[in-house]
Records
---
Amino acid sequence: MKKIAVILSVLTLISLIAIGAVTQTFAKQAAPAGLPRIMHSCGQAPAGSAHCLALVVTASNQLNANALRKNVTPAGYGPTNLQSAYNLPSSTAGSGQTVAIVDAYNDPNAEKDLGVYRSTFHLAACTTANGCFKKVNQKGVQGSYPKNDPSWSQEISLDLDMVSAICPNCHILLVEATSPSFGNLAAAVNTAVKLGANAISNSYGGSESSTETNFASAYNHPGVAITASAGDSGYGAQVPAAYNTVTAVGGTSLTHSSSTRGWSETAWNGTGSGCSAYISKPTWQTDPDCAKRTIADVSAVADPNTGVAVYDSYAYQGLKGWLVFGGTSVASPIIASVYALAANAASLHLNGASYAYSHSSSLYDVTSGSNGSCGGTYLCTAGPGYDGPTGLGTPNGSGAF
């Protein structure tokens, strides 16, 4: 019996060493040839257009050991993690609400990939057949979509999955603009409003100029909560986040902690923030160092190093399947979905951003981290109360929305 016990112990030890070796080998693999460890899904856009703000992790050292095993949660935060981190009533709220996602071009696998995500995380199916999911072009037409584009499809998969994670009871409306021109994206936002969206997420941005202000009216629909990503290039303003009728969403790094909350957050060093050069300061913003509109208002996880799990089967740069994403593209649909959980959009003034300023006690204040150099002020350095990178903070329930 002793010999058998010894043999079993040795075999167990060998197995553990082997598993560890496989994990270590897998973890040390580099990104695919020619790709950076973290890659922008969309390239920089020319003047008059926006680029999506998704960041995809390409290096396998970002995947945890569980990703090597079948029937185990994919790498990256899933619905349970995000709902826990932000203390959300996701299982009971959101019924009757519609969250719209506005992106450019067509993702031919959008509904199928959404189904994989939701079934993997044991969420109820959200399909065209059961009335939960609807995909239209920028004119509101089903079945006549823009050209396929694998880079924007990564963004679309990310956005749809984040709505599912935060508000699984919500309906989802995907509006695909013909191109990422600000004119087409603005038309898509107006279509989302016409089709009854309660909240609209815009995970894209472009250079702020006097020309882009011409499209601000498309993002001004009182009674509809409209969110926009603050950007992924550090300190500096962009549109549509700079429009004073949207909720500008900054980004954080989100990690587990031993605190009562169980999570901690710092400002993500890539998140956008700053002062608009053209958009007037809304009455509900009172910070001292921006004469015009200040970015951001609130924030959520965006650091790709603490990223979220997303399923996308439309291969781009050789990447497909379960992936890890970051960028303020994660944060914007999260916040739009929290608005839907609150089901308060119909009574909101200026699309809802002002409401958070009078209900900041229902937010987690993020007090550390920086996204660039701005003389050390609150505009690029997180601290108690309002700051540029994280705004008023991150959701603690849906009370601020």
Note: The CA atoms of residues 4 and 10 lie 10 Å apart.
---
Amino acid sequence: MLTSPPNLLTFVRIGLIPILVALFYLEGAWARWFACAVFAIAATTDYLDGWLARNRKQQSRLGRWLDPVADKLLVAATVLALVAFDRAPLLPSLVILLREILISGLREYLAEARLDLPVSRLAKWKTAIQMMALGFLIVGDAGPAWLYVEEVGFWGLWLAAFLTIASGWDYVHKSVGHMLDEPVREPRLRPARGASPWS
């Protein structure tokens, strides 16, 4: 259902993305802390919409498609904004983005083959560390010096990148057998309505 609470939370997460990106263009420590709060709220909705969908039995096809899309939009927008404003290292950011593209394509293929790719425990750890690191990087040098905010964000993102590679390899390893064993089915073309099948 389009207006079910889980789907509404997912729409909220998507709606917060432009607000988050806009805050990167504002000066001052308050803008960074506000951006971190917006990011934290958006990340929290990711947990809440899944929890509500399972506990209220409101899972839907729309939700199964939209939820991971919203997650990837949030992460991609945040990572790109941090790199653009020189507040995150490029290499781990690139690894994270490329892995998201790879796994999205893999899930799409497996969905067509009617196969499910459950989220692994390693991927959950990756997501938790990644979100923490992004939050620290958003605050950056606006955070207290004693907390080493920039250092925690920097090394946290590198750790998330390594876990990204490991979890991505795990997914590919589990799925490659299906790709190699399943024969490719050529699409059957049907003539358009009113058209001759010999045209």
Note: Residues 149-181 form the longest helix (33 residues).
